[in-house]
Design brief:
The protein is an alpha/beta fold and about 500 residues long. It contains 19 helices and 14 strands. The protein is globular, with a radius of gyration of 25 Å. The structure holds adenosine monophosphate. It catalyses: ATP + H2O = ADP + phosphate + H(+).
């Protein structure tokens, strides 16, 4: 196996890597670093979480170590689709270049031009930027790109989604023809292929996973959801989301929840907060300082759930995200790969659970076609007895007495019959039966599968997952096990007369 020491990296870089705790290069690093150090163009097809940032940052630092910064003429340029990704690359640069004298500037929106101009005037070795902001600086005459020796385009497929390709082409045209280009994309759409054919010269192509594949260390599942009534869909979907979070128990240490619409990001975050979860929204309409604060909080572990839109979450590097929840099936199948790539990073295990309502089934088919695998169907953790937790207050007050509807029973049976493997897994992980549930908890009756009642103390509730239920039995309803479980909700909702689940 290749070792970092075999890669001809600057000893100062090797020292920083060792301090970062990296033992061996990831496949994209082992593949991209040698040709990059030889000055060749590189086309890296790699999704987030594969270590691709270091695969271009480490050779860049090594190569730049030999020269000197000149005023207004950065020697290298890294283009990222979002501010967050750019900020993250900058952080990576600081980590890996800490024993060198190399300097950098970060050109992103939401930061004053003045500060950024001052840095560029002094001269920087590495400029990390979003395309729009870079062009703004260029047009103000504050920046010359004719000194760029190495240009990196990161997450090119996202640049394409965001409409940045014309900007990228323009920036390519502003840099010297002799520059070295390191180009990264998780997928190779035809437009990306065209760009690479135009601007890269005989690149070394490194593909660490098949384009649009999803990490094998990520357990995936999808819950098919149908609201009991159209006007209750939004509330019931949020209720299901909370059940899904709860059912993961202690295994869910932190999570990113993706919504397709910014409006839903706000509503879901607000609703989770209202139910006692430690959740914050992040999307493009929030101001930069708030986004940074939220992200820092999430990285530090102070915020446990990030509710995000695709664009805002782009480039988030939070190495230990245990779970990704897709509140909606993404409308662009490729976003699914990016979303779930937030978990299971750097070889860790991750879990990705999605909710699919009938409207999204077509999108689900697209996702499954793209990843070339069916996504295992999971049961609603509440099984056959879901009642809308966000029902109108008057109804909710009587929820305990009212018999619960069997909203998902027939569907989950059909599904289980169709998916014996999934069902087998479910039986292994199914929690004890509900008959022993204390009355006061008014928990749902068991759903389709049950296990023999344990002799021990009655558990408050079963979690009847049709998929992976690593959660300890009963933990889903207790919410005491982790530091971030909501406080008992009766304190917040006394009129409902029982503890709400999430
Ligand atoms: P990336 O794909 O660049 O976003 O990197 C994903 C995560 O992997 C980051 O948290 C890096 O710090 C980490 N990482 C990168 N390279 C290595 C390595 N060789 N060994 C262990 N972790 C790494």
């Amino acid at each position: 196996m290749t070792q970092f020491n075999d890669l001809n990296l600057d000893p100062k870089v090797l020292k920083a890597i060792a301090e970062a705790g990296y033992e061996t290069p990831t496949p994209i690093q082992a593949g991209a670093i040698p040709p990059a150090l030889e000055g060749r163009d590189v086309l890296g097809i790699a999704q987030t979480g594969t270590g691709k940032t270091a695969s271009f940052t480490l050779p860049m630092i090594t190569l730049l170590g030999r020269g000197r910064a000149r005023a207004r003429m950065p020697r290298s340029l890294v283009l990222c689709p979002t501010r967050e990704l750019a900020a993250q690359v900058a952080e990576n640069f600081d980590t890996y270049a800490k024993h060198t004298k190399l300097t950098k500037a970060l050109l992103i929106g939401g930061v004053s031009f003045k500060e950024q101009d001052a840095l560029i005037d002094k001269g920087v070795d590495v400029l990390i930027a979003t395309p729009g902001r870079l062009l703004d600086h260029f047009e103000r005459g504050k920046l010359l790109l004719t000194g760029v020796q190495i240009m990196v385009v990161d997450e090119a497929d996202r640049m394409l989604d965001m409409g940045f390709i014309p900007d990228i082409e323009r920036i390519f045209g502003l840099t010297p023809f002799t520059r070295q280009t390191l180009f990264f994309s998780a997928t190779m759409a035809p437009e990306i292929e065209r760009i690479t054919n135009t601007f890269l010269s005989n690149p070394e192509k490194i593909e660490v996973a098949r384009a649009a594949t999803t990490g094998e260390n990520i357990k995936q599942g999808v819950v098919m959801f149908r609201a009991s009534r159209k006007d209750r869909e939004a509330g019931e979907k949020r209720d299901l989301l909370r059940r899904l979070i709860d059912a993961e128990g202690d295994t869910c240490t932190n999570a990113i929840i993706f919504c397709n619409r910014k409006m839903d990001v706000d509503v879901v975050a607000k609703s989770l907060k209202k139910h006692g979860y430690d959740a914050e929204p992040i999307h493009g309409d929030l101001d930069q300082s708030q986004r940074t604060r939220t992200l820092d909080g999430f990285r530090a572990g102070d915020v446990k759930i990030l509710v995000a839109s695709d664009v805002a979450a782009r480039g988030l590097d939070v190495p230990a995200v245990s779970h990704v929840f897709n509140f909606d099936v993404p409308s662009h199948a490729e976003d699914y790969v990016h979303r779930i790539g937030r978990t299971g990073r750097a070889g860790r295990k991750g879990t990705a659970i999605m909710i699919c309502n009938p409207r999204d089934e077509k999108n689900l088919e697209d996702v499954e076609r793209l990843v070339q695998n069916p996504i295992p169907r999971l049961d609603d953790p509440k099984g056959a007895n879901a009642a809308p937790a966000e029902a109108p207050a008057a109804e909710a007050a009587n929820e305990e007495e009212r018999p619960r509807r069997t909203r998902t029973r027939s569907r989950s049976r059909t599904r289980d019959e169709a998916k014996p493997a999934v069902k087998a897994e479910a039986q292994e992980t199914t929690a004890p039966k509900a008959e022993a549930a204390p009355k006061a908890e008014a928990k749902p009756a068991p759903a389709t599968e049950t296990k023999p009642e344990p002799k021990a103390e009655p558990k408050p509730d079963p979690t009847t997952r049709g998929g992976f239920g690593d959660a300890a039995p009963g933990v889903a309803w207790r919410k005491r096990s982790g530091p971030w479980w909501p406080r008992p909700a009766q304190k917040r909702h006394p009129r409902r007369g029982h503890r709400r689940h999430g």
